[in-house]
Amino acid sequence: MRGRMRPQPGAHQMNLSTTQSAATETNPGDQSARSRPDARDEHEHHKLAKRLRHQVGRTIADFGMIEDGDKVMVCLSGGKDSYTMLDVLLQLQAKAPARFELVAVNLDQKQPGFPEHVLPDYLSSLGVAYRIIEQDTYSVVKRVIPEGKTMCSLCSRLRRGALYAHAEREGFTKIALGHHRDDLVATFFLNLFHHAKLATMPPKLRSDDGKHVVIRPLARVSEDDITAYATWKQFPIIPCTLCGSQENLQRKQIRNMLNAWERESPGRTEQIARSLGDVRAEQLADPSLFDFVALAKRSDAPLPDAHAWLAGATTAADDD
Q: What is the pTM for the complete model shown?
């Protein structure tokens, strides 16, 4: 199903209203001076929207995220990231070279105070197909996790399970998540510092059971741009603190580190993000990715393995 966009006032409409207002003023010059900042703001907003469409469209193409005939489940939490993802996908869908269906899906986890009307009202106003799944994962998490401990990990696993099950029942071919560039960079450092591996959230992946393909269309979009875009579009944001859980301390530390780097060296986060797409296996140290043994090997004879080298070293030590 094709979604309908909310009409946004075009630049020509704003210019017309400014001209009409200026005609009624005794001092047109003063009115023109007052109107210029609004015109500049509107111009910057449209530049931002164009940049997001370009980044998301390029990401979809580079990673083969969406094909003709796809049924895409757009996971909508009510936060700025997922709202932005849905909005940009709707814009691209209108002129896309492939025909695909978008369905917004939200999981109502029965958190106390969750405003159940916000998402249905917003999505109905757009004419977007949507589904609200109701599953009380909140009570499960509260029962299992001790008071004061971070609930995010278990909550995320339960949420993922519910969404995957719905995707399978409804025949969705792709599951779109709203993780952005900064999420990918932060996850890279979490893996580096705490798990001793070079890995992050990939822009596209197949689930462990092989049943689902997950895509992250915002993988190249900065959080700052998403924040600015969500503010401009005035999305009805639902706070993510309803559960009362504390943010993961490790992720918070990583974000503080990245923010400090960005203040000292603007553009560093973007450089790190670009490096995730320029991996040189021969310049790292993983023999499973690059055949170092065969590199410059002078004969076809098998080389001694680690056991042979260690055995030799032990013998020499014993002789001493």
A: 0.81
